[in-house]
Specification:
CATH architecture of the largest domain: 2-Layer Sandwich
Distance between the termini: 33 Å
Order of helices and strands: HEEEEHEHHHEEHEEEHEEHEHHEEEHEH
Oligomer: single chain
Strand order of the largest sheet: 13-10-12-11-15-16-14-17
Number of strands: 17
CATH topology of the largest domain: Uridine Diphospho-n-acetylenolpyruvylglucosamine Reductase, domain 3
Number of helices: 12
Radius of gyration: 20 Å
Largest sheet: 8 strands, antiparallel
Strand content: 15-25%
């Protein structure tokens, strides 16, 4: 365990005094996958600011420093038969807790167990002035007021350096089973919508390579009853797609083309002229690997948002869904409040932020 708070604060203050932007780095597992390029010459490295600060299994609360690898947290929780319900990707062992929150990365259980932001109870945050501030708390009942902690989800480090995170954890399920059924994309969407409305222990629903995968997790009796009713082939844990989905492995296979991640209503129609690479979150998350695909328009037409997960070489435009003037103004005001000199990851989320 290493606490580098004072060193990190000094680095931020020095960068501010010199007017030199910082690129915040943890395990560097998402550098190519998400957001725009930003300052490379001056890196604020949090990889050694790591370790579990507090863990109370009986209270279902864990506190860890931002540089702590997700794989390490998963191992600590597994010893107590507990899990991070939002299933964060481990990034081949490189993904960290701070980077997971900053990128708002959640796995296949997101629609049923919530996103990473839903598990956050509090954060310790370094501002662009080099101040260390605490927001939220370490127990569920203490979370109140303006939720600055959850505001960090998806901000890509533009609103502060996440130094420490308090999380709500959950008991591991008693039983898990994955079913597979042959379906085309349209039929899979219809089935996912229907299954998601049923009262079952469904914790995963995706379509990949012509097959609909359904994961049931919870009490053994409920899992078995739902599996018998739905039918399909039982898939072994090794052959189930959930780990690969969480690690974005399918997307990596299509990295030669622009890779778009579109989040929208689960019952939204498929676009004409573009077939999704995969569909997750019971239809609410769709990945497209295609040239000339207007993902921003498609997402906007259906009340969602898109992100260019893997930009092609030379891409200089925005990679996140364009904002209305009102929302853009709010983003800029928040940036001014937390990082008025634009020292922290400038341009990473939006070119103007």
């Amino acid at each position: 365990m290493t606490d580098l708070i004072e060193t990190l604060c000094d680095r931020v203050r020095s960068a501010r005094a010199a007017g030199t932007p910082l690129r915040i780095r943890g395990g560097d597992s998402k550098r190519q996958w998400l957001g725009r390029p930003c300052a490379e010459e001056n890196i604020l490295d949090l990889a050694q600011h790591r370790g579990v600060v507090a863990y109370e299994p009986g209270e279902l609360v864990l506190v860890a420093r931002a540089g702590t690898p997700i794989a390490e947290l998963t191992e600590v929780l597994a010893a107590e038969h507990q899990v991070l319900a939002f299933e964060p990707p481990a990034g081949g062992g490189r993904a960290t807790l701070g980077g997971t929150l900053a990128s708002n990365c959640s796995g296949p259980a997101r629609p049923w167990s919530g996103a990473v932001r839903d598990a956050v109870l509090g954060v310790k945050l370094l501002t662009g002035q080099g101040e260390c501030l605490n927001f939220g708390g370490r127990v569920v009942k203490n979370v109140a007021g303006y939720d600055v902690s959850r505001l960090q989800a998806g901000a890509l480090g533009s609103l502060g350096v996440i130094a420490e995170v308090s999380l709500k954890v959950m008991p591991a399920p008693e039983a898990t089973r994955t079913l597979a059924l042959e379906r085309d994309a349209e039929a899979a969407l219809a089935d996912m919508s229907r299954y998601a409305r049923e009262s079952t222990p469904l914790t995963g629903a995706c379509w990949l390579q012509g097959r609909l995968f359904l994961r049931l997790s919870g009490a053994a009796a409920a899992v078995e009853a739902s599996a018998r009713r739905w039918g399909g082939d039982t898939v072994t844990a090794k052959d189930a797609p959930w780990h690969a989905l969480g690690e974005f492995a399918a997307g990596a296979q299509a990295a030669a083309k622009p890779l778009w991640r579109v989040s929208l209503a689960g019952n939204a129609p498929l676009p004409s002229g573009a077939m999704p690479l995969l569909i997750d979150w019971a239809g609410a998350l769709r990945w497209f690997a295609a040239d000339g695909f207007d993902a921003f328009r498609y997402a906007g037409d259906h009340g969602g948002h898109a992100a260019l997960w893997w930009p092609p070489a030379g891409w200089e435009d925005e990679t996140a869904q364009p904002l209305s003037p009102t929302l853009q103004s709010l983003h800029q005001q928040l940036k001014m409040a937390f990082d008025p000199d634009r020292i922290l990851n400038p341009g990473r989320l939006y070119s103007w932020l």
